[in-house]
Amino acid sequence: MRRATVTSFFLLGIAASGCARFVHPGDPISGLTPEQRDQFRRGRAVFDSVFTPETGLGPLFNSAACGECHEHPVAGGSGDEVEVHATAFHVDGNCDMLAAEGGPVFQQEVTPALKAALGIEREPIPEDTTGRGLRSSPAIFGRGLLDAVPDSDLISYADPDDRNHDGISGRPNRFVDGRIGRFGRKGFVPNLNEFNAGAFVIEQGITNPAAPTEESIGGDSIPAGVDPTPDPEINQEALDLTNDFLRFLAPPSPLRRTEAAKRGEKLFAHIGCASCHLPRLRTGKNPVRALNRKTFFAYTDLLLHDMGPDLADICLGLATPSEFRTEPLIGVHLSSHFLHDGRAATLEQAIELHGGEGSGTRDRFKALKPKEREAVIAFLKTL
Amino acid sequence: MKRLTMAAVLILLASALLAADAQQPPTYTWVQGTIHAVQPKSGSFEMVTGVGMSLRLLRLLASHNAQVAGGGAALTDLKRGDICRALCYASDGKLFADRIEKVAAR
Question: How far apart are CA A380 and CA A346, in angstroms?
């Protein structure tokens, strides 16, 4: 009888693992309703829409489509494009995000009409800037899950005064109105919908019901006749569908782990990477069943950490120039460049460029034997 | 979503409502953001608001009977970096704040 029970459990286990769907990059999360799958599909079409000046593009923009930057290997993946952010960090600790002068994102493209009117090729960066940062286009898989993690969880991970003396002192960033942030390389934006609505305007110059006005041109008004498309340039339905696509875009399944990668996973935790790159997060109560109370692999704590002076660039909200939000490692095996500005060509370089709170872990990584270092990298390449 | 709607209303207030007919009764809206600058002499202050990474600077005038509450009793008590909310309306192409509350000090 006992043997039969054990065999039954074994077979059940096999059946369960056989049923677990391998999630390819670009797939929706599992458990969506047919209606939600339809919203995902239609949202991807909006995400891939290419705008022109006639359909609202610009007058300032970085790209003509969401999918132009988030494209590799599928819509929602990473991209080669790098954009420019700038702010002014004052000695009293205040961060001027240069909102009066068109910041913090300074667009690198202009429409022909704006170029004809002002003779500029890109948005001018003001002279009072103290920091300039380049930002690569990250893969944005699994952002709906990250969005659904309760603020209270983020707060529970924070240790701003390093009371446990582990050299790690994460803290949440806050948006201009005081809410806890989590999206963007500095963890400034509170939620996915707002990130997307703002991104339509700053990246493509596409106004929408949630962000209904264009960016200024370095703080000045848009010359008359340059942007004749009536605002908002997309409607609520298009915005909602884009939000649905990104909310339902699944984290790709981790790749099969070799023995070396399995050793690497243990070393990843042992040398301290997992102190900030928390392997698992859990969503809270959510009206979408597929996002409701789900544990998922995230490899982030969504908190700000001081990464040292060599990586420092702009301030943003509470984030000082050297503070960055722990980058989620979801789908990192699909990326070809790493860190916030893409300066690292390999994962090994990215680890070695960690400073500040990451320097202890970096040093422990560098002290590993070559085979152990290879194991850590092999593990990361499965994520 | 509610916050997003509020932020959209806020930006609309700064643009569309600025052109509103002064004869209409004022429409009040709460706006929340970070104080960028305070000019006590002119009774004005600037607040950073926005949606996502798309930020805007609002210039507001404290109305003659404006109340400042929540940690300060006057406009001069507001400091750059404070998070405040203001009950405001548009008139004559300008934004006026009737009530200003400090939500969190810098």
Answer: 11
If one compares B11 and A381, the residue with the highest pLDDT of the two is A381
The structural domains of chain B, with segments of one domain joined by +, span: 28-102
Tens-place pLDDT, residues A120-168: 999 999 999 999 999 999 999 999 999 999 999 999 999 999 999 999 9
* CB distance A25 to A252 below 8 Å: yes
Interface probe for A, chosen from B1, B54, B57, B103 (most Cβ of A below 10 Å), is B54
What DSSP line would sit under A33-71, residue for residue? Answer: -HHHHHHHHHHHHHHTPPP-GGGT--SEES-S-HHHHS-
Is A178 in the B-facing interface, judged by CB distances under 8 Å? yes
Residue with tokens 């270092």: A373
Contacting A residues, span 74-103, partner chain B, CB-CB under 8 Å: 93-94, 96-97, 99-100, 103
Please indicate if any CB of chain B lies within 8 Å of the CB of A105.
yes
Q: What ipTM does this complex have? A: 0.93
- The CATH classification number of B28-102 equals 2.40.50.320
Phi, psi at residue A230, to the nearest 5°?
-65, 145
Q: pTM of the predicted model, to two decimals?
A: 0.91
The answer to whether the beta carbons of residues A222 and A17 sit under 8 Å apart is no
Asked whether the beta carbons of residue B32 and residue A209 sit closer than 8 angstroms, the reply is no
Chain A neighbors of B50, CB-CB under 8 A: 99, 176, 198
Q: Measure CB to CB from residue A198 to each of B1, B52, B80 and give the nearest one.
A: B52
Share of chain A above pLDDT 90, in %: 94
pLDDT digit string (tens) for A31-40?
A: 999 999 999 9
**CB contact B71 to A (< 8 Å):** no
The pLDDT value recorded for residue A279 is 98
Closest among A95, A200, A185, A94 to A140, alpha carbons compared:
A185
Residue in the structure block whose two tokens are 């240790």? A159
Do residue B83 and residue A104 have CB atoms under 8 angstroms apart? no
Those residues whose C-beta lies under 8 Å from the C-beta of residue A263, and which sit 6 or more positions away, are A372, A375, A379
Nearest partner of A71 among A23, A136, A148, judged by Cα = A136
Q: Please tell me the distance in Å from B78's CA to the nearest CA on chain A.
A: 14
